Amino acid sequence: MCLTRHTDFTNAEIQFDKILELDPYRIDDIDIFSNILYVAENRSKLSKLAHHFLAIVKDRPEVCCLVGTYSSYIWRKPF
Question: Would you say residue 1 has pLDDT above 50?
Answer without folding.
Answer: no
